[in-house]
């Protein structure tokens, strides 16, 4: 059950970094997410990045670095808008869940 809850958080976390860093690559976002206690396998992370791309929230570009092809993801205007909407909903939820604490 915990995994289901955090799946949505991971998507929002990815969008957040794509918006605020300008671009992200899978290995960098995996390390960042891990600093928050999420253990996300490549088999989960890369399909999530691809889903966000298909939804129109991320755009992918490829570059060759050190002889290796790397994919970088950038937030689209739709991704920025989705993040802003999510932030409002998250704040409402946190305020309600933390009420009385």
Tell me briefly what this model is.
The protein is of the alpha+beta class. The protein has helices spanning 2-21, 26-34, 42-54, 77-97; strands at residues 24-25, 58-65, 68-75. The protein has one domain (2-97): Arc Repressor Mutant, subunit A, CATH 1.10.10.10.
**What's the helical proportion of residues?**
55-70%
Helix tally equals 4
Structural category: alpha+beta
* Low-confidence spans: none
Number of strands: 3
CATH superfamily: Winged helix-like DNA-binding domain superfamily/Winged helix DNA-binding domain
> What's the CATH class, please?
Mainly Alpha
For this structure, the CATH topology is Arc Repressor Mutant, subunit A
The CATH architecture is: Orthogonal Bundle
The number of domains is 1
* Element string (H = helix, E = strand): HEHHEEH
What is the CA–CA distance across the termini?
Answer: 24 Å
- Major β-sheet, in short? 3 strands, antiparallel
3D shape: globular
On the 0 to 100 scale, the average pLDDT is 89
Strand order, sheet with most strands: 1-3-2
Percent strand: 15-25%
Round the Cα radius of gyration to an integer and report it. Answer: 15 Å
List keywords for this structure.
3-stranded antiparallel β-sheet, alpha+beta, single chain, 4 helices, 18% strand, Arc Repressor Mutant, subunit A, 101 residues
List the helices and strands and how they pair.
Blueprint: H1 2-21, E1 24-25, H2 26-34, H3 42-54, E2 58-65, E3 68-75, H4 77-97
Antiparallel strand pairs: 1-3, 2-3
